[in-house]
Amino acid sequence: MGRRQPDAQGDPPARSVRFQADPPEGVRWPRRVSGRTRARSRNTTMTRLYNWGRTLCAHGPVLRPATPAEAANALQRHRHVTPRGAGRSFGDAAIPNRGGTMLTERLTDAQPMEFDASSGILRANAALPQHAILSNTCPEGWLLPAIPGSRYITLGGMIAADAHGKNHSQTGSIGKYTRSLRVLVADGDLVDCSPEQHPDLFWATIGGLGLTGLVVDVELQLEPLPAGRVVSELVGFGSTDELIEVVEARHRATDFVLGWADGRFSPGRPFAGAVAFGHWRPDLAPPGPLPPFRSLRLPFSNPLPGAGWMAATLLNAVLRRKFRDGRHETADVESFFFPQDRIRNWNIAFGRRGFLEVQCCFPLEHAAAALRDIHGFLCETRTLCSLVALKRFGPGLPDAPLSFPFEGYSIALDMPVRGRIPEALNELDEIIVQHGGRVNPVKDSRLPAERFEQMYPDLERWREVKRGWDPNNVWQSALSRRLHLTE
Fold first, then answer.
1. How many Å apart are CA 244 and CA 249, to the nearest integer?
2. How many CB atoms lie within 10 A of CB 352?
3. Going from the N-terminus, what domains does the chain have, and what CATH number goes with each?
4. I need a surface site. Which of 247, 332, 351, 474 has the fewest CB within 10 A?
5. Which tens digit of pLDDT belongs to each residue from 169-186?
6. Which residues are CB-contacts of 95 (< 8 A; sequence separation ≥ 6)?
7. What pTM, to 2 d.p., does this model score?
8. What is the pLDDT of residues 208-235, one digit of tens each?
């Protein structure tokens, strides 16, 4: 494909504001620079963008194309572009390092959704959020095969993350059900790719963090929706070994598995919590239109000092009541999948310094030892987590070199940024590597590049595809620079 020459008069670099403590050795946080917000054109403005964890903020040009053609034209005017959908990445995947940020919010009307209710095949605009898709497919008896934890995440973001849900042990990630993609690549071409057509681009885009191009359209095979309600049974555990024993005994006979552990860690405190085993219940409600999803907003935008500790303590108290051994809970589709979205701006509750999430997974044979070591680390450092979530993963996607999930166990730790937490997490990285685990890059903003290379052995295969389709690194982000995926 022909390559364009970058415009010598490109936009000024975007810079990020550091809200955390000093970064660990080997990790570079971009510096804050001044700049005034001003209109540049109808589709380009200078503005500030935050990550969902509110630990980073970038100031720079923002592009809002309304059609794929406008998006392609924007690539001719900008040396470097970061794609951004709903902005729900906890880390720096949708934060620019330099150049412009391409928002997809105006692309939602570029092509209508096409859905075959007889086969469950969906072809949809990648800028659409999950809830827009579910509201059209659920009444027809079909469901997205992998549903991450926010209804506002876009379909393109799900592809870029190879998103997984509470049912990964049964169904796998979104990439398994993706039939084809249309991708806006660096030279402005729209390329159709699939496992048969341009398979290198297809698999590098699944879980590719938005760095191979802007996903414009997605064709998916949906899963049948068995019912309109899910019933969850809670089973308690008092140690890491007991957790794995409970899950291994029951996960094959259930539709969903999600564990929770108490996030208050101190020496001698056990790793205790409960696992929710969810089952579709057609006898309670058949598939049908989704009921209205009611949510509220926190009435403040600048929390008081200490808000992170207070919010984490309160959330643990609420979850201890919810995840009680022997309890049963019934929920409709969206209430089951998206409980956090009941508070639309819940991310601001954790204080001015924001929060970090570390999600990592381990192979089955190392899971028990890994979880024991992580529990020991958290107790030794007296870490307070607002949420500790556990999942059982099924087989991964070996063809997608940057896909995160593989068969084993996953633990996600949400931590308000307090004290020297970012530095202390270097020790956690060592534990993850020792046990053959990996970190989910979509939720990370601090992992050093050398650790990432240890965790993703097929990284060089992905880099070869990136060099072939984007030799000048037009598509990049703060994440790609931090992890040395682009230069």
1. 8
2. 14
3. 108-225 (3.30.465.10), 229-289+304-446 (3.40.462.10)
4. 332
5. 999 999 999 999 999 999
6. 16, 49, 51, 56, 58, 82, 477, 478, 479
7. 0.90
8. 999 999 999 999 999 999 999 999 999 9
